[in-house]
Every structure is written in C-alpha cells, then in structure tokens.
Amino acid sequence: MLDEINRAAEFLAVHDKIRLLCHLSPDGDTLGGAFAIFYALRSMGKKCCVECGDDLPEKFQYMYPDQMGDFKPEYNVTVDVADIGLLSDSQQKLQFSLCIDHHERNNIPAEYKCVDSKAAAVCELVYLILKQMNVNFTSKIADCLYTGICTDTGCFKFSNVRAITHKIAAELMEFGADAHKINFKMFTQKSVARLELERLVIENLEYFYNNKCAIVFVTNDMMRSAGASESTFDGVAAIAVCPEGVEVGITVKEKDINEYKASVRTNSFVDASEFCGYFGGGGHKRAAGFKINGDMQTVKNKILDKLKKEIFF
Ligand SMILES: [Mn+2]
Q1: The whole model's pTM is what?
Q2: 122: CA distance to ligand 1 center in Å?
Q3: To bridge 30 with a disulfide, which of 78, 80, 183, 185 should be the other Cys (CB 3.0-4.6 Å)?
Q4: Which CATH class is domain 2-188?
C-alpha cells in the first residue's frame, strides 16, 4: 500500500490543473477528501477544483471554499468513488488519471489506483498521501479530513475503525481539527425534518426471519411529508440495523416510479457487500447498497427471498 500512497503523492505533486471528482449523493468522506486535496494543492500554487454531479449539501458548508477558480482541467482524480455509475453522465466520459478509494470493489478505469479497502475512510488515505507530500496541514485541511473519518466511521463506532484511524484523527486534532464542533454537527444536532424522517422510518420498520432482518421503504411521499431533502436522508440507513437482534437492516429508498436504491447494513456476520453483489451492487462488509426496479411488493419479495436463500436458509 505504501507504494500506491507514494505514487499518488508523486502524481499530485508533479501535476497541475487537477479536477477532483466526488461521488453522487456526496457524503462527508468524498467531500472531505476532495476538499483537503484542493486546499493542499492550492497552497502549493496549483490550479484545482472539486466537482460533484449533485448539489453540495449545506451541512458541510464549513469545508467549502469561497471560490473554486476558473481554468481548464487537464487531469481527473476520483475521490471515494467506487463505481463509474456514481459519477454524472458527462463525468463518466472523462479520462481518469488517479483513483483514490477505500471500497472493496472499485471499477474506475484510472491510470493510477490508490485503493485500500482496509482504510475506514478515503480521508485516511488522503491524509497519508498529503503527509507524504509534506503538505502544511492547516486547520481547514484538518477539519475536512476529520469530517471524512468521523462520518465514515459513524463517529468512530463502526467495525472499520482501526488503531491507525484514531492515530490519524488525533494528529488531525493536533493540526487544529475542531472535533467537538464537527461531531456535534454530524451526530448530535439534527434538523426537524431529519427527526421527522427518522420517526417515519422507525414507524415503518418491518421485521422478518425471527426479527433478524428489518426492512423499511422510504417513499418520496415520506420524504415530502417530513420536509426532507436528499441530503437529509444521509445516514438514515443506519437505523434499520439498530434494533437488538437484527443482523441485517435494509432501507429501500424510492428514487423514481418503480426504481429503488437499497442500503444494507449488517451487524456481525453477514457480508453486506457480498449480499448486495447478488443484485449487482457492492460496498463494504457492514455497509453496502444496490439498485433494484419493480413495484414495492415485488422489490420487497425479491430482497426477502434472496436473504432467505443466501443467509437465513
Ligand atoms: Mn468513504
């Protein structure tokens, strides 16, 4: 892995006019990683920009720069993007120079790949890359990287957390990351819309297979009635695996008529990435997802049948 880190560091140090690409439905990790690189490169006098096919959520406002700069990008670097489908249609046609990621399966056709599925967050990798580049870690860069790590680890609670995760987070605090402010904003404070959405999710949870599986559909009607936007939904998928005894928690989000995106969270022994693979999706061991089409009842039956066949047989 050291080789990949060094090569990524060298690529970023040597090249200019870099476009950093975040995945659709951007989260704290893809944005934190991209903006940390953005500030680092800019401090070296380079031109760079961060691009995302979706709007940037208000929640991460403190990471965003006043302006991105106007230039024609020559190199494209993806950050935290596991699948080419997680880029916008026009971005998918680009040529990719470097791919920095931490997902189990990654299909970005980049010239250089820096992918480590053991990293809890892509921001762990970005930290090591920037360190290798001897970047001056400002508190802004530290806030961005800390955000990625705390959000992708559920505030250092998920099983992806390693000792080095804490070590990196500790060093980021020494560089000025405001851990309390960020964790309060990410995990304690919730909008009224978010709380209302959580209430609806809990109310609509259904249990199967001796309560080992919980499944909930989040419809556009529910989103509307909660007053929730797409970014309000971020992290809601963690709720379904909360009830004691549940091993697999599945949150199926309506995208369009008869189009759904399922988010699977598992507790201790079911490989979420493997399960999602049966439907053409993927992700991590404890958190993964897939797209599925059909009416609600058909989708539910398909998922429950597969669970029964592959897991609770
Ligand atoms: Mn990530």
Answers
A1: 0.84
A2: 5
A3: 80
A4: alpha beta
